[in-house]
Amino acid sequence: MKKQLLALAIGSMVVAPSVAMADKGPIVYGKANVSYENQDNDVEDTWKLQSNASRLGVKGDLDLDFNQIKAIYKAEFEISIDDGDKDGETFSQRNIYGGFAHDAMGTLIAGKFDTPLKVSQGKVDQFNDLQGDIKNIMAGENRTSNMVQYSTPSFADALSVNVALIPGEDQEEGTDENGVADAVSSSIVFDKGMFYGALAYDSEIEDELVADSTMDGRLNILRATGLVRLDMFEFGALYQLAEEEDGEGEEDSYLISGAVKFDRVKLKAQYGLTKADLSDEELTLIGVGADYKLAKSSKVYAYFAQVEQDLGDQEDTTFGVGFEHKFSM
User: Fold this and answer.
1) Contacts of 118 (CB under 8 A, 6+ apart)
2) What is the pLDDT of residues 132-181, one digit of tens each?
3) Where in the chain are the domains?
4) What is the Cα 117 distance to its own chain's centre?
5) The predicted structure's pLDDT at residue 31
6) 2-328: what CATH class?
7) CA gap 246, 217 in Å, rounded
8) For residue 29, how many C-alpha atoms fall within 13 Å in the half-sphere facing its CB?
9) Which of 236, 218, 227, 221 lies closest to 187 in space, CA to CA?
10) CA-CA 20 to 30 A from 213: which of 12, 32, 177, 283?
């Protein structure tokens, strides 16, 4: 019954946007990203239709009776275009929050959303949401519940700071995590013209190492990201050090990516490597692909991705073709 009510609520916003937008109103937006892929993991070779984090959401702001301050909100859900089922649900929660924004004092939001460390990757991942996503070889790609985040206004239209506090709320059995901030995620971001750079740190975040987890469940993660954007070229690099809070396991991760654009075509590639300190396991990621823009918010694409375990002697390869349509109203 709850899923039906949620579907009706979102559907009514899409069908009747003129009513919803009477007073600045919410923006209904979304993305349909569908690919037809061949996936081979050395055991099974299969063709699949993938939905690739397609989504539907509503966001906006409300003027308040106070100068320079407004209420802001966002409710975004993943939708499965392939089979309508996301882990047994029609809609799966993505970034959902509410809060306040002030022109000179910054932004305060609370809810469940991507951590500052995850967001700090910017656009360096050329295969985000596909099988070549960096989450396949490195930790830190977290969307976390019960977060309270403050973001500074942009200094000189370039520099901003983000700090998120995450209370544990005694969610893990046998722990005493009920403080103001049992985990913290933070970032410093510089974004100006051709250059994007970010330095981020997670302290005791609930996560696991990808290549060498000893099931501690809490990590400290340092991530540095840089991206250069020119008219035709993009070049990005990312370094990450992730270690278990008890000091048992540690991973170093590296990623380089690049793209060249001409007319409607974008050719792109990336290479990633994660080295585990405890087991000496190595994970490598290779991705190559091409996008062809049909319009400002629509494209078709083809790509190849491979994730390989060295000691585990496993190789996952994917070849896919697909399309992406973005929309808002």
Assistant:
1) 140, 141, 142, 143
2) 999 999 999 999 999 999 999 999 999 999 999 998 776 555 556 666 77
3) 2-328
4) 10
5) 96
6) mainly beta
7) 10
8) 12
9) 221
10) 177
